[in-house]
Amino acid sequence: ANQPVAVQIVGNRIVDMRALNCAMDRKTFISANSQRITAKDAVCDLGKNAVFYVYSQSNKYRIINSDDIGDYNISSVSVYTDTATERGGVGRVVVLYER
Asked: How far apart are CA 37 and CA 18, in angstroms?
């Protein structure tokens, strides 16, 4: 837990995320804040320094602050954890997909 995360984005897609597990894969988005992501049929606690990306309709990723999530029209969410949630893993990378 609490290990560094390396995310590599090339063009319009994430091509590599080292040391991460996918806890949510494009689940229907319900709500989010700096501590927790809630999606249809899933909830994931987030680590203290989780990074939020918005994948926009223009096919680009941009980093945002958790306080700015409400500024976007989010349809679905993917969350990547440092280890399996069953073993206490928390979200380190959150990808929010705009409608």
From this structure: 21
Return the biggest CA–CA distance within the chain.
37
Q: What is the pTM of this model?
A: 0.83
pLDDT in tens, 46-94: 999 899 999 988 888 889 999 999 999 999 999 999 888 888 889 999 9
Q: Are 36 and 48 in contact (CB under 8 A)?
A: no
User: Do residues 80 and 22 make contact, with C-beta atoms less than 8 angstroms apart?
Assistant: yes
CA 52, 53, 58 angle in degrees (round to 5)?
160
User: Strands 91-98 and 42-55: what pairing?
Assistant: parallel
Residues 21 and 99: their CA atoms lie apart, in Å, by 25
